[in-house]
Every structure is written in C-alpha cells, then in structure tokens.
Amino acid sequence: MDKAVTTHKLTKKFGDFVATDEITFEVAQGEIFGFLGANGAGKTTAMRMLCGLLTPTSGEATVAGYDVYTQPEQIKQRIGYMSQRFSLYEDLTVRDNIRFYGGIYGLSRAELKTKSASIIRELGLDSVADALVESLPLGWKQRLAFSVALIHDPKVVFLDEPTGGVDPITRRQFWDKIYEAAHNGTTIFVTTHYMDEAEYCDRVSIMVDGRIKALDTPTELKRTYGVDSMDGVFQILARGTSGK
Amino acid sequence: MIEVENISKAYGETRAVQDVSLSVEAGELFGLIGPDGAGKTTLFKILVTLLLPDAGRATVAGRDVVKDFRALRSMVGYMPGRFSLYPDLSVEENLHFFATVFGTTIAANYNLIREIYVQLEPFKNRRAGALSGGMKQKLALCCALIHKPEVLFLDEPTTGVDAVSRKEFWEMLGSLKKRGLTILVSTPYMDEASLCDRIALMQTGKLLAIDTPSGVEKLFKKPLFAVKANDTYRLIQDLRQAPFTITCYAFGEFLHLTTRDGFSEQQIAHYLAERQHQAVEIRPIEAGIEDSFMDLMQHG
C-alpha cells in the first residue's frame, strides 16, 4: 500500500516551546484524513512541516515519498494547498488565476488550455471566466481555489479550514468535490472546526498540546469514547487544556 | 429592546440588507444565523450607529439609531467580527482604555466581567496582540461589557474558533443572559442556533424566517430520512439519481435524504439493494435547523 504521508516522532520546537511533540502517523493514498485540534494545538506547525515550508527539529516525515528535510522542493511540486486566508488573487480574473497557478506548476501551454477549459466548464464559471475573482461569491471562490489546488494532479492536497463562512448547501457542495477527488485517488489532508465534517473523513486524528491524542475512524473514536458524535469525542479530548 | 422596521442598505449595486424587520425582547438571546454575505455585519453596524441605513428605521433601548446615536452609543456594547482591540496595549490597558472612554472604571463594573476576566488575569500584562485566539475573544467581550451596556451586539464571535472554545463562549453568553442583558449574536454555525431563545435566518440580505429554534425546525414539511451505507460516495451518487429524491446531502455520519410524498423506507431500501449497497441503514427523522435553513434557501 502506497503511503501518501508518513511521520515518525516528528517534532518542532520554537525555543523552549514544543509546538509539535513526537507525532507519528501514516496516511494512505486516496484517503480523506481529518487533522483536528483546538486552536493552538500545533496543527498549523505540523502542516507547514509536511508542506516543506518548515524544517522539523527532530523526527522523520515523508510526503508523496519525499523526505521533508532533504527534498522539500520535490514535495512542493507534488502537493496542493488551499486555505481560507491564502488562495486566489482577487484582482486577477478567474481565467488568469488558473493560468497563473498552472504556470507556476510548469504545465505546458496545451495542458493549460485543456485544464482551464475543463475547470471553467466543470464549475459552471463560463459567464464569469473573465471577471475578477473578487466579484465572485465566497462559495464559488472556494470551489475554484480547490480546483486550482488540484491543477497539477498532486498526490496530496492540504486543505486548511476550507469551508469557513459559507452557507450549509455550499459547504456540502464543497465536500462533494472532496469526495470526488479522493475517489479519483488524490489524498485529502483536511483541518476543520465543523465537527460534522470530521464524520466525513475516513480517519481522524485529534491533536492536543502538540501531541496526537487519538487517531482512528470516526466510528471507532465514537465507540472508544462512548459518545454519539465527533463533537462529543472532541469535547472529551480537547476540553480542559489550559491557556488556550 | 431592539425594533427594526424595513431597514435597507446598499453598497453600489450590492443590496446588503433588503427590507429587514425584526424585534428583540428585553433579556432575550437572539441569534442572527447566516453565511458570509447574508448582511449580518451591515445590520449590526446600523444598529450600533456606525452606518446609516438607506431606508427604514430602527430603535435600540428606545433610542433611534440615527437621531439619538450619541445617547445610544453608551448603551450598547459591540464586539465586531474582526479583532479590534489595541494589539500593542496590554490586556489590562485595553480594558482600562475602554472603561475610560465610556467615563467609567474597571472597578465600577467589575462584577459584570469577573467570571470572564479571572481567566485573563494571569496574562494581564501581556500585549493583547500576543494572546491566543480564545483569549482575544474573551478580552474583546470584557471590553464590550465594561461600561455596563443594556444591549450586547456580538458579530460572529465564534468564527474560526475551535469547538471547545465555542462551547465555553456560549456558556459565558448564557450567564450574561441570566443577568438580564439583551444579546444579539450572529453566527454562521447552525449548531449554535439551538442555544438562542429565538433566531432569524438570513441569506443574501433577506430574512428567510424568524422563530424559536424548534419553530424553525417545524417549518420543514417534507419527508426526511437519515441514510447510511458503507460506500458514502457511491451512496450519494445513487440517491441523487433516485426517482423519489428531492435533495440528498451529507450530514455528519448519515446522509439526509428529502423525498417526495408517498415513498416508504422499504422502497428506498429496495432501490439501494438493487444497486448492491452494503450495511444500509434508513430511518425517518425530524428536521434540524440546518435542514430547515437549506430548504428555505432553495424554496423560501
């Protein structure tokens, strides 16, 4: 079985502060992996290390088969990344954003043309293809950002709270896209504060104070902690962690 | 305590708030529920006298939001969606600053914020900008309360906050309500709606419904089923093709399936068995607030 992500005792310290404390886990190719934790639990630090943006203090990690210490550039070429804060250029058009990101990832002129056309068609953006991204509703932007994050057919796509602020239907349409991508073999690594979304993941890890406190399927986690929802699991594990 | 009559506000072509009317009773915890772009922030800014409406009128605590804005400002507490304290001032300095601006002291109204402020006290000399998200939120709430307002306006206080901190925040609102404060709070999280006395559902500038949380749930009239099987992706695809289906959406562990009238669980089970779905569970359920909201969005 191919592993999309592996970590062994992965650790990051900032001075005396241990942001990520010996985390060990594996994510299979094509899996939807939910990476949960309270604000400040160390999720962002861990994700930055996996994206090749931050060198770990100790431990091991590979992403798409590449080592985070020695091959961060190879990793960057094989992953997609999307967050609410950083995604598209608001003052470029839909078409220009697609072309820009496609160009960065080294797509050929012909590939760019096919990709642009298929993304625009699939998302139903024909009428606004030459409009500035800032004029689009938030839900459209999110779906476009997701398609753009997949433009170079990455092995793994990292989604950092991708669905914040949208209406419940748009949020579910976004998850339809996630399911589709996973079904086509892309590994999904996702953080969220919506606990119902945790239920949509194949497996979920919950970080507390830099450590992974639990990791299993939603069904098993609920059984282990004797509750009927992932919110219940989260409240048990993450509550009572002081200073947050 | 809050009366809104036919308020409208546009920014150029964008009609941010369209003909909104609602009223909030004294002592009520009232929720404005809706996604980004619903018009929640615009309505809040009008009610706390930071923005003039294009049409309509509104009063808060008996004062007109346009004519009596000066008197009104000292009677409302406002916590904007974006963190708006001074990041370079310490926790204590921020609180002192807001108390002074409103002509009062921390000591005079300390009992109102005590429960929340004790959690911040160990960090009172820390710069506000260096606080964690949950702590910033608590400090902002203290600063909005320090002049003892009659009405508290909280614009998306829990957006981007983790599930544990969100729960703690709502516990704080519960105890403020017990002290008689009227609270208008906005949120994009549907699960928080059930914690309010009454809610208004809002979408692209318009109100979809105003009712108690259970009243909103009862607005949903169609047959609704929770469905589960071992291959969720294929289950969604197949159910959306089914002749009985109106909508099918993921809802946590289950899918929520809205059907036309006159179809039974057995018919749904038969349809799924024909398509080789394994470990199928189907049961009729009562709609939640989110089901109602989604239904009203499409057909309201």
Automatic annotation (TrEMBL), chain A:
Tell me where in this chain the ABC transporter domain is found: 5-234
**Keywords noted in UniProt:** ATP-binding, Nucleotide-binding
Alphabetically, the GO molecular function entries are:
ATP binding; ATP hydrolysis activity
Recorded hits in Pfam families, A to Z, give: ABC_tran
| Presence of keyword ATP-binding | yes
Matching entries from SUPFAM superfamilies are given as: P-loop containing nucleoside triphosphate hydrolases
Q: Which PROSITE patterns does the record associate with it?
A: ABC_TRANSPORTER_2
InterPro entries reported for this sequence: AAA+_ATPase (IPR003593), ABC_transporter-like_ATP-bd (IPR003439), P-loop_NTPase (IPR027417)
Q: Does the keyword ATP-binding apply?
A: yes
The molecule here is called ABC transporter domain-containing protein
Organism in which the protein naturally occurs: Persicitalea jodogahamensis
Organism phylogeny: Bacteria, Pseudomonadati, Bacteroidota, Cytophagia, Cytophagales
Automatic annotation (TrEMBL), chain B:
Q: Where is the ABC transporter domain?
A: 2-229
**What SUPFAM superfamilies does the record point to?**
P-loop containing nucleoside triphosphate hydrolases
Q: Which InterPro entries match?
A: AAA+_ATPase (IPR003593), ABC_transporter-like_ATP-bd (IPR003439), ABC_transporter-like_CS (IPR017871), ABC_transporter_ATP-binding (IPR050763), P-loop_NTPase (IPR027417)
- Transmembrane segment boundaries: none
- Top-rank lineage group of the source organism: Bacteria
What GO molecular-function term can you cite, just one? ATP hydrolysis activity
Pfam families according to UniProt:
ABC_tran (PF00005)
| SMART domains, per the entry | AAA (SM00382)
The entry's keywords:
ATP-binding, Nodulation, Nucleotide-binding, Transport
Family note: Belongs to the ABC transporter superfamily.
Know the name of this protein?
A: ABC transporter domain-containing protein
Q: Specify the species.
A: Persicitalea jodogahamensis
The uppermost taxa in this organism's lineage are: Bacteria, Pseudomonadati, Bacteroidota, Cytophagia, Cytophagales
